[in-house]
Write a structure and sequence with these properties.
This protein is an alpha/beta fold. Helix content is about 40%, strand content about 20%. Helix 5 (about 125-140) links the parallel strand 5 and strand 6 (about 145-150). Helix 8 (about 210-215) packs across helix 14 (about 325-340).
Length: about 375
């Protein structure tokens, strides 16, 4: 391939079509008439809408550190093929490749710190791995020009860790959806109208409240759980479902492309955002699923944690629950929220016009320019 000139080069150790945040960034860059190139994991559906998308094929069963090494090694191929004006590393793992592009072309390097990577929930029991990742981030952030975070609490913490860096807060808001397309979810799952659907969006990992959500079904015969996502804990949660004889009331939909996700979410009754404070990163979390439920016009049951509670305490869009809530109590609250769903409608309509990605376009423009 001949050299490609790009206003923004996106580096991501994931599949963009399933990544809400990156999909929204790309939509904004396109709206701003910026030339975009991307290097990510194999994602054929995304290629159909972006011909400057380049993929690195890495087997999914490899360990994370091997994936990181392979991504950055194979990414070297593109150093002489793509000439960017700015580089957006959408995670910590793509920083080494981003630094190489920065040094080669003397351009701006932007780091999207989606989590507090020095305090990840998945590494709580692995202090050596967590220590290495903390060192890894500290080393490569030296070359970063700007850091993006998903909320004020993350910014306040990381600005103490990296005091010389410029920070931008870009929330995990979804794009405004005027109308969703029906996917006949109830019909496809063979459910009755009186059945209540609670949905969990996102990766199947520890600390997301999926276990207690599954167990809550034991205490409510007409409650169903829709799980839209995949991840390392899927087999475990399927086994729990079978052990509790709940296979007919827990529906694993797998990963759904982000552009289609809210079509499913909007047909449910309650959105679950049950983050557990198993790490410092999770304690400060303000996940995209919270705002996607609002955009899908369904009330929320969410954990009473600092960032999440700042959204729900000031609005009538759902209920807060404590992190250690018992399954029976959770079932009662989900049923209660679903039964009074109409009482949340007015506030949901209000905030689905506020918590919108498009409202951040000026900040994103400032970030790039």
């Amino acid at each position: 391939m001949k050299k490609l000139l790009a206003d923004v080069l996106i580096l991501a150790l994931n599949k963009i079509e399933f990544d809400a945040r990156l999909s929204n960034f790309i939509d904004t860059f396109t709206k701003l008439k910026l030339e975009i190139a991307s290097i990510s994991l194999d994602s054929k559906e995304f290629l159909s809408i972006n011909q400057n998308a380049f993929f690195i094929n890495i087997p999914e069963n490899l360990r994370t550190y091997i994936k990181i090494l392979e991504f950055n090694r194979k990414g070297n191929y593109f150093l002489d093929k793509i000439v960017p004006k700015s580089i957006l590393c959408s995670d910590i793992y793509s920083l080494p490749l981003g630094v190489k592009f920065k040094k080669k072309y003397n351009v701006k390097l932007i780091y999207d710190s989606r989590e507090i990577y020095s305090n990840l929930a998945s590494l709580t029991r692995f202090p050596l791995k967590q220590g290495f990742l903390k060192y890894f981030e500290k080393y490569f952030v030296r070359f970063v020009d700007s850091i993006i975070v998903t909320g004020e609490l993350d910014r306040d913490y990381l600005s103490q860790v990296f005091p010389s860096k410029r920070f931008f807060v870009i929330y995990n808001y979804p794009k405004k959806i005027e109308k969703t397309e029906s996917v006949n979810l109830r019909k496809n799952l063979n459910l009755a109208e009186q059945d209540i659907l609670a949905i969990y969006e996102g990766a199947l990992l520890e600390g997301r409240g999926i276990g207690v959500a599954i167990e809550s079904l034991v205490y409510a015969g007409n409650l169903h759980l829709v799980i839209a996502g995949s991840g390392a804990m899927k087999a475990k949660y399927q086994n729990i479902s079978q052990a509790l004889n709940l296979e007919n009331r827990i529906h694993f939909l797998g990963e759904i492309p982000y552009k289609k996700l809210l079509n499913y979410t909007s047909e449910c009754d309650v959105g679950l955002c049950l983050i557990e404070p198993v790490s410092f990163s999770y304690n400060l979390a303000l996940p995209n699923k919270l705002f996607e439920y609002i955009q899908a016009n369904i009330p929320v049951v969410a954990t009473n944690l600092p960032a999440i509670s700042s959204i729900l305490q000031n609005s009538n869009i759902g209920e807060l629950v404590e992190p250690n809530i018992e399954p029976k109590k959770l079932a009662e609250i989900i049923i209660s929220v679903a039964q009074k769903k109409a009482t949340f409608y007015e506030e949901l309509q209000k905030y689905r016009n506020i918590y919108v990605w498009d409202n951040q376009e000026n900040t994103i423009l400032e970030l790039i320019k």
